[in-house]
Predict the structure of Probable prefoldin subunit 6.
Amino acid sequence: MDKEVAVLQRKLETELKNFKDSQKEFNKLVQTQQQLDGQFFENKSILEELQMLKPTNTVYKLYGPVLVKQDLEESKQNVGKRIEYITKELKRCAENINQLEQKQDKYRANLQKLQQQYQSQMALAKQ
């Protein structure tokens, strides 16, 4: 009887560790998603500003401490590519978050089942 309780306790501890690890990973992904959202909206506003410019306007890009003249169309393309990349990363991040949520649901169900088994074993041991 004591061996069964010890085995259940180890399973419970392992499942709890897995659940906590998945929570940490989930929190990291949510943080990454928030950063990507910020970058997305920043680049979106930059593109809107660039769209308002006339072809005769001059655009400069900051490279370290130096401002370098850049072609307007090239700037629009660069920002567009950046937005495209960020959009793909946001989609990938959302998919990973969904997968982790499903994984966490399984861990919760397993934890609940193991806790019930552990409690019933403890009750039997006391009798």
Summary: Helices lie at 2-52, 72-126. The chain has a mean pLDDT of 92. Strands lie at 59-63, 66-70.
